[in-house]
């Protein structure tokens, strides 16, 4: 496909073309790039080549130190950019391939000094994995009351902290805080530091305050996706969260992967949505879900409510992997293999719900899925679930075990869609735990 | 314009000569700009805001004084003290973030210089007719904007009376306050994008609700649209991720305050909020007043903090508070004469809130906004929400003339005001107002 050689196992095949912001040791300016194989195509150098109807007058968006302006241009501009990128990088197209003066527009990913996060507006975290919510519910409330009454009716979510979103590679310091292991609260380093395997999407154009985004058009507002680790301090969280939700148990740091994979690259891996039908006569008790392999639809008693219903498939088969490498371990141990397809609520439903009351989203806003767990224990996306609230040890091999994280642990989340002889992947979402402050 | 200002200046001089010693007529004698005794914007206030005018749409920083605004972008060259001389650019910005980020010493210096330029005894600005004509704008001529780019907005829950009232309404007297309430300042992340400046209309939200637990949830316009009287502070310099702000130094990070109305849709909130907290019941709109009153202007009105002692032997039961008469700043708030309250009723101080917020390493940034939570005092007249004033809809709130309310109606205009009362002057906040538009139809 491309004259740039790409390994079959590379995340950054010709079918991917994710966007990111980077700089280099010789040029500290933040600029936009596209990952391909082991290289980055510097869009600020080739912006003049984007001369289609959507982008010709807006080439300036590729000169920005953030992706926000490009995301704000909208669906048609993103599609055109992708067409042009596929053209420039094609083995059959000479514009870039043979242009000697443009040598150096391709940079190696490895020596690049950093890949950056750009200023995010608001960050929202959802809770949309049914297995995760059920596991947590069983652990804390018992099987009968596992899922809250609202869970199957609306995509439950909460506002997260934007300032502490960091890019993969940023160290995460173990937080100190107030906890209540015994009747009297204490202050000290968290002893229940956990991970949360998640994915998140960036919002493209925004909507005006008071003007909801209808679910059938929500995909026009969804730019692309990243991996996320929503580090959590369970002890701090448990003591603070009633009644207003998680706060300091979450906002000490949240890591995302640096390359934003556009939705077009993921569409080949779309599958049918889970069925979300609730029996009419079970409205008065717990809703019964019929099965889970077909397109979402309303039943005779429309559940979920119409503003959440969309018929087009928007569930994605993305393989996800989590590993931990502790101090003294020679290689990382896999602790989780999961998949984004396990989500109950789609991204379109989440975005429509988020704006149905008139709330405004803006380019660069980030909406995360919530911890991703599947039905099998190996697919649980948090140590809380993998260790079942600390009741069983997670085996890392070589005599190493965990319930929660230790100082020095390096957690890496990776993910990719498997195509025929190629991958569409996300790069690493990694963080290493630093010890808590002493004094 | 110039001639008019000249006569205004002359008039001020004339009036000055007839005044007795300055201490007995603080307000009048302080500035050559005439300020009414009931004005929020006395010489003792000097709040910062961002405005534009019909003839110049550029957002710029100003200071309110009397009925005027001093355009700081026009007089930035006058700030030539050690902190600001090399950073006059902060007054050329369309938001206050850079100025907030400079820190405590720079804010103090800016205030000293403002007090000097505006002083009746100082000629630099007073007698420079050209500069004065460009520097002062009539407030009625200006449009106010959000004063900062707000990266993150956090809402606390720090009024004991409010938390107790809500607890009694929903859980009964025995379980009114949650066990964590007296141990830490409970808070949650709010939505920054829907923070709007006073005067922005607020559209009644639609959403999912479950008014009857025995029936399926429904979708439609909220029927329990409420207000929340709050105050909020802006953060100055930030801290690095992983490096908490110690409580004893937290005041160096607190820039100034505004009024806030945290509009709430109680029915949407009640159905969604378990277990992750309020979300769509809040984020359809939040209004703040446009003038940020610097902490230095509020310090004369500081009082002792509430006592927060918990009896050792009651650790296993509810903590007992000894007495309560305290905390920073007085302020009266009227909203269509339904509530008169005071910021002094807060249980947790802003320093405690900021220290708690960063104790785990969370990073705050210049322009971040931290709100107090609904402010209620011990008396029913001081309750800061319709939920409490109507006691969950069980009693009508009398608006006079036959008008009553439980929750808001379309077309209602809610105004929050507040001020500290000094001797012959006020330090106030301007209006925090919003009018309810009907929900979307389709």
From TrEMBL, chain A:
GO terms for biological process: homogentisate catabolic process; L-phenylalanine catabolic process; L-tyrosine catabolic process. Its cofactor is Mg(2+); Ca(2+). It is an enzyme of class 3 (hydrolase). Its EC number is 3.7.1.2. Pathway: Amino-acid degradation; L-phenylalanine degradation; acetoacetate and fumarate from L-phenylalanine: step 6/6. GO terms for molecular function: fumarylacetoacetase activity; metal ion binding. It catalyses: 4-fumarylacetoacetate + H2O = acetoacetate + fumarate + H(+). Mg(2+) binds at residues 230, 250, 254. Keywords: Calcium, Hydrolase, Magnesium, Metal-binding, Phenylalanine catabolism, Tyrosine catabolism. Residues 15-102 form the Fumarylacetoacetase N-terminal domain. It comes from the Eukaryota. Gene3D superfamilies: Fumarylacetoacetase, N-terminal domain, Fumarylacetoacetase-like, C-terminal domain. The active site is at residue 132. Ca(2+) binds at residues 125, 196, 198, 230. Substrate binds at residues 127, 141, 237, 241, 371. Residues 124-421 form the Fumarylacetoacetase-like C-terminal domain. Belongs to the FAH family. This is Fumarylacetoacetase. It comes from Electrophorus electricus. The gene is FAH.
From TrEMBL, chain B:
This is Fumarylacetoacetase. The lineage of its organism: Eukaryota, Metazoa, Chordata, Craniata, Vertebrata. NCBIfam families: fum_ac_acetase. InterPro entries: Fumarylacetoacetase, Fumarylacetoacetase-like_C, Fumarylacetoacetase_C_sf, Fumarylacetoacetase_N, Fumarylacetoacetase_N_sf. Pfam families: FAA_hydrolase, FAA_hydrolase_N. It comes from Electrophorus electricus. It is an enzyme of class 3 (hydrolase). It catalyses: 4-fumarylacetoacetate + H2O = acetoacetate + fumarate + H(+). The gene is FAH. Pathway: Amino-acid degradation; L-phenylalanine degradation; acetoacetate and fumarate from L-phenylalanine: step 6/6.
């Amino acid at each position: 496909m491309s004259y740039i050689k790409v390994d079959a196992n590379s995340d950054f095949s010709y079918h991917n073309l994710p966007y990111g912001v980077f700089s280099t040791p010789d040029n500290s300016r933040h600029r936009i790039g596209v990952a391909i194989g082991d290289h980055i195509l510097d869009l600020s150098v080739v912006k003049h080549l984007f001369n289609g109807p959507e982008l010709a007058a807006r080439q300036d968006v590729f000169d920005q130190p953030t992706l926000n302006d490009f995301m704000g241009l909208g669906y048609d501009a993103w599609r055109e950019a992708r067409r042009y990128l596929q053209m420039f990088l094609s083995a059959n197209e000479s514009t870039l391939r043979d242009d000697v003066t443009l040598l150096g527009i391709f940079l190696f990913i490895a020596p690049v000094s950093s890949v950056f996060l750009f200023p995010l507006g608001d960050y929202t975290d959802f809770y949309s994995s049914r297995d995760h919510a059920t596991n947590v519910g069983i652990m804390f409330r018992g099987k009968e009351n596992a899922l809250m009454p609202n869970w199957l009716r609306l995509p439950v979510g909460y506002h997260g902290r934007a300032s502490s979103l960091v890019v993969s590679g940023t160290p995460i310091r173990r937080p100190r805080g107030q906890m209540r292991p015994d009747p009297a609260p204490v202050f000290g380093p968290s002893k229940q530091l956990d991970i949360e395997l998640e994915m998140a999407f960036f919002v493209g154009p925004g909507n005006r305050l008071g003007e909801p985004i209808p679910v059938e058009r929500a995909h026009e507002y969804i730019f692309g996706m990243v991996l996320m680790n929503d580090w959590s301090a369970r002890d701090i969280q448990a003591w603070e969260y009633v009644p207003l939700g998680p706060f300091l148990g979450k906002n000490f740091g949240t890591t995302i992967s640096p390359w934003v994979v556009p939705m077009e690259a993921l569409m080949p891996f779309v599958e049918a949505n889970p069925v979300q039908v609730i029996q009419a006569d079970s409205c008065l008790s717990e809703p019964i879900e019929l099965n889970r392999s077909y397109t979402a639809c309303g039943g005779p008693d429309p559940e979920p409510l119409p503003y959440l219903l969309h018929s087009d498939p928007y569930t994605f088969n993305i393989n996800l992997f989590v590993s931990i490498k502790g101090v003294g371990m020679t290689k990382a141990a896999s602790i989780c293999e999961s998949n984004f397809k396990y989500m109950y609520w789609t991204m379109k439903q989440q975005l429509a719900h988020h704006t149905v009351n008139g709330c405004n989203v803006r380019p660069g806003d980030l909406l995360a899925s919530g911890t991703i767990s599947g039905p099998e224990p190996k697919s649980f996306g948090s140590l809380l679930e993998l260790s079942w609230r600390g009741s069983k040890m997670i085996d890392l091999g070589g005599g190493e075990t965990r319930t929660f994280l230790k100082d020095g642990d390096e957690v890496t989340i990776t993910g990719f869609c498997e195509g025929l002889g190629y991958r569409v992947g996300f790069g690493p979402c990694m963080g290493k735990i630093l010890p808590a402050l002493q004094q």
